[in-house]
Amino acid sequence: MRALVLEKVGQLSLREFPIEERLGPRDVRIDLKVVGICGSDLHYYTHGRIGPFVVEAPMILGHEAAGVVTEVGAEVAHLVVGDRVCMEPGIPDQTSRAARQGMYNVDPAVRFWATPPVHGILRPSCTHPADYCFKLPQDVSFAEGAMVEPLAVGVHAATKARIRPGDTALVLGAGPIGLLTAMAARAGGCARVWVADLDAAKLEIARGLGFDPIDVGQGTPAETILPATEGWGCDVVYEATGSPKAAAGVFAPLAPGGCVVMIGGQSEPVPYDAGAAMVREARVENIFRYAHVFPRCVAMIASGAIDVKPLITRTFAFEDSVEAFEVAASAPKGDVKMQIAF
Ligand SMILES: [Zn+2]
């Protein structure tokens, strides 16, 4: 079938690609409708690797997806042909020790779309375990359904923070993950959410969504947060930049007893201000993707508790997906999430 293939670093093609997928008894076959372009897809395109995952053979990109069920395996009970679904891209070994303990996302054997050597889903159809497909209500669009995957990162981060109603939060980074984390923090009960970034266009989007922007080119987040909180600090700090400099400063704006959630990936060890963490008795949480949150994300989009639509700033046709990646890789100001529609 035709697919968007990363041939090697910097080289994409939309071409016929041999891929055979058998429908297992617990699988469904899905016609893809919308696929989001993720920072990780772009990173494989521009760098050919993320940490230990190296692109060594042509690989189909894409993992943020929604579509329609076209075929159902014999043992699948909760889905029927015609159901609209979004898909959780990581398939763990259900019998692994991590999966049995409920942490299936950290199962070392997890197979995740568009993470070498596993192919992604920028192609007209795929098969997937029905257990990792989640029905979309009629009033949730495919475009919104394809936002569930990145939203799941923010919701998992908010869950790990154990937000209490009325908490205050700071999100470092106003990219798609930062903004979705800010939305998850607000939906989880935060009374006020600051979003910090260097990019004025992104901060303007954050402001438009009702968050308090902090331009880190003008000063540190703590210089805004401390005066605004009578010197106390905010209850939760989310690090969603992956920048070592941002990571080094996570405790300065944090309130005593507060929680830091590390979201952004770091390729090298980063400085950690142990003294600042100690005097606050800070709790530090780390997340790796997400677990158990897709149904919650769908429910919040359906109820209106979270509106992801303003973040979808551009949509390309599948036929134009090479161009879509070139545009996305140039990181145009004012764009948050770009998607590809079939
Ligand atoms: Zn993603």
TrEMBL record:
User: Would the keyword Zinc be found if you checked this record's keyword annotation?
Assistant: yes
Which Pfam families does the entry mention?
Answer: ADH_N, ADH_zinc_N
CDD domains in alphabetical order: sorbitol_DH
Please list the cofactors this protein needs.
Answer: Zn(2+)
Looking up InterPro entries in the UniProt record yields: ADH-like_C, ADH-like_N, ADH_Zn_CS, ER, GroES-like_sf, NAD(P)-bd_dom_sf, SDH-like
Q: Which Gene3D superfamilies match?
A: Medium-chain alcohol dehydrogenases, catalytic domain, NAD(P)-binding Rossmann-like Domain
**Is S-adenosyl-L-methionine given among the entry's keywords?**
no
In this protein, which residues make up the domain named Enoyl reductase (ER)? 10-331
Q: State any single GO MF term.
A: zinc ion binding
Query: What keywords are annotated for this sequence in UniProt?
Result: Metal-binding, Oxidoreductase, Zinc
Give the UniProt family note.
Answer: Belongs to the zinc-containing alcohol dehydrogenase family.
| Stated name of the protein | D-xylulose reductase
Can you name the source organism? Wenxinia saemankumensis
